Amino acid sequence: MSLPTFKVLGSFDTDRIIEEVQDYFTSKEHVSLQNNKDSLYDLDYTNSVLEQYGMFNSRLMTLRQKECYTWHRDNTPRIHLPLLTNSSCLFVLEDKAFKMPAGDVYWVDTRKPHTALNGNKGFTRHHIVGMTNELF
User: pTM score, two decimals?
Assistant: First the structure.
């Protein structure tokens, strides 16, 4: 029996997180939100969601219009919290492409080859990605 590679774990209040983290939407590609499991900022709701899903070393990530990450593998699975996204933003895992609507919590086995892309003009995608040791 093989483990799943992509799973929806639950949901969160996108508007509440965006309200807390919008000041950290910067020109930088990534903004760290945690050092291991220690929160770096006073973000009550956001930190509670990160803790609820056992996330650590979480980052606020930005993917600008017409950008793509390199094809790579991570050392641990990741949990993704899409904040601002749309139908032209895709996550590609092995040979399958997924859309991750905002508001859902996704566990992804990123130990497998993957990338993400933003195929939009004039739209920036924002999401939170954190490491997890959980296997489902």
Answer: 0.91
